[in-house]
């Protein structure tokens, strides 16, 4: 069990890159957590523990988003992840007010693992659109995820999980991914392929005609603020 109050909060901005020109077209903000001695803690461990306390989860999510917006690269599009459980109920409006105050913001909704989560994410999607926020569907095709047809039809961005890079060696895998990208193109959505680590994978992204890519191939362009703050929960 982590002592959450002993952690510090920061973030990392990872770029979205055009696979053809290698120009940066915005950043995704990702939460980062550290022990007092500066040792990094895996974010999934922190959020798994936070899910046991909805109030603490909402407080940390709001603190993280406030930090990410404050330190974001200037004059760049910004994507932030929102956990539907952290924006549920009484906490929704506070988070919506914060997010809608930032220009050029896109909110990423995580692909869901069960029907109740899918319904919650769909409800949150409509609230984000009412607040005039762009919405991206994240983790499409991840092993733990399920496809939400309603969300796929209505979001502004489709973000394809790195797991597709393992599937494209199979004829059915490349056929399905190509069809989903074609769907995105025909319906006016931007398609993003995650997990690009090699030049060969970047070339595959070009052949698939995705709009943007992200991954550790572009690690020299990652941005980490020097600032951090004590976690409040």
Description of the molecule:
The chain is α/β, with parallel strands linked by helices. It has one domain: EAL domain (TIM Barrel), CATH 3.20.20.450. The chain is built from eight helices and ten strands. The protein has helices at 43-50, 54-70, 92-100, 115-130, 149-154, 164-167, 171-186, 199-208; strands at residues 8-17, 24-34, 40-41, 78-82, 105-110, 134-140, 157-160, 190-193, 212-213, 229-230. Strands 1, 2, 3, 4, 5, 6, 7, 8, 9 and 10 form a ten-stranded mixed β-sheet that branches. Helix 2 runs parallel beside helix 3. The chain is globular and about 50 Å long. The mean pLDDT is 93.
Low-confidence stretches: none
Shape: globular
What is the structural class?
alpha/beta
CATH second-level architecture:
Alpha-Beta Barrel
**CATH top level label:** Alpha Beta
Gyration radius from CA atoms, angstroms: 17 Å
CATH topology term: TIM Barrel
Q: How many separate domains make up the residues?
A: 1
What can be said about this structure in brief?
With 233 residues, this protein is of the alpha/beta class. It has helices spanning 43-50, 54-70, 92-100, 115-130, 149-154, 164-167, 171-186, 199-208, and strands spanning 8-17, 24-34, 40-41, 78-82, 105-110, 134-140, 157-160, 190-193, 212-213, 229-230.
Q: What features would you highlight for this structure?
A:
single chain, alpha/beta, 10 strands, 37% helix, globular, EAL_sf, Cyclic-di-GMP_PDE-like, cyclic-guanylate-specific phosphodiesterase activity, Signalling protein with EAL domain, EAL_dom
